[in-house]
Amino acid sequence: MSYVVIIPAAGSGKRMNAGKNKLFLSVQEVPIIIHTLRVFDSDETCKGIYLTINPAERDIFQELLTEYKIQKVKRLIPGGKERQDSVYEAVKVIEEEGIVLVHDGARPFIRTNTIRELVEKAAEKKAAVVAVPVKDTVKRVENFQVAETLDRSSLWAAQTPQAFHISLLKRAHEMAERDQFLGTDDTSLVERLGIPVAIIEGEYDNIKLTTQEDLYFAEAIYLKRERRKEEDHV
Ligand code: C5P
């Protein structure tokens, strides 16, 4: 089943402390955003990529897309102040009907199989998210004191991609704007409409590159995957 994808890439990456958009940093000598784009560019069921960017970085993005021969980017859309604003700008210009994915530019390790499974689930249920069970015990903290220990058996960490019927994602963003609701992901905008969101179990490898040490993990994940590919070809 086909889909389009919104990739927000307009962040400043403050927590990475790189002095530039973290998506331009390289893993194995290829910029992070190119790793992410390649996954969708090479997936034949992906019908188009809507990339939200900081307008001041338009030329850099254009050059990267040309250099790495990325074919499916339909639009470079100026992003907004928060991630949610950036996604909304893309939602407003989408022309297609059907299924839309939202996937962070900073998650380069998503696998095509997971995308396929997610798209099927969203087609059936209207909204679905990739998530993994949390490994740590999670505490709610107030003033550096434990207020509560949460029941881990029901806790999952939400990742991206998150997938929706396009009309539902549009409505969720419109309602969030109307109510001035700011969420940290897109399914939270759908959840508040009372619409159930299905879960697909993803992989712990699908990390979001956020802080400096994530670059070290990213190199390791990349090398592991390259080794697997070589073993598969023996
Ligand atoms: O900062 P964080 O890694 O959580 O952001 C997730 C994704 O959202 C990144 O790919 C980032 O570039 C993007 N983003 C955006 N517009 C913003 C903030 C973040 O497109 N205003």
Automatic annotation (TrEMBL):
The record marks R15, K22 as: Transition state stabilizer. The keyword Transferase applies. Keywords: Isoprene biosynthesis, Nucleotidyltransferase, Transferase. InterPro entries: IspD, IspD/TarI, IspD/TarI_cytidylyltransf_bact, ISPD_synthase_CS, Nucleotide-diphossugar_trans. It catalyses: 2-C-methyl-D-erythritol 4-phosphate + CTP + H(+) = 4-CDP-2-C-methyl-D-erythritol + diphosphate. The record marks R152, K208 as: Positions MEP for the nucleophilic attack. Its EC number is 2.7.7.60. GO terms for molecular function: nucleotidyltransferase activity. Pfam families: IspD. The keyword Transferase applies. Pathway: Isoprenoid biosynthesis; isopentenyl diphosphate biosynthesis via DXP pathway; isopentenyl diphosphate from 1-deoxy-D-xylulose 5-phosphate: step 2/6. NCBIfam families: ispD (TIGR00453). Catalyzes the formation of 4-diphosphocytidyl-2-C-methyl-D-erythritol from CTP and 2-C-methyl-D-erythritol 4-phosphate (MEP). Belongs to the IspD/TarI cytidylyltransferase family. IspD subfamily. PANTHER family: 2-C-METHYL-D-ERYTHRITOL 4-PHOSPHATE CYTIDYLYLTRANSFERASE, CHLOROPLASTIC. This is 2-C-methyl-D-erythritol 4-phosphate cytidylyltransferase. It comes from Bacillus carboniphilus.
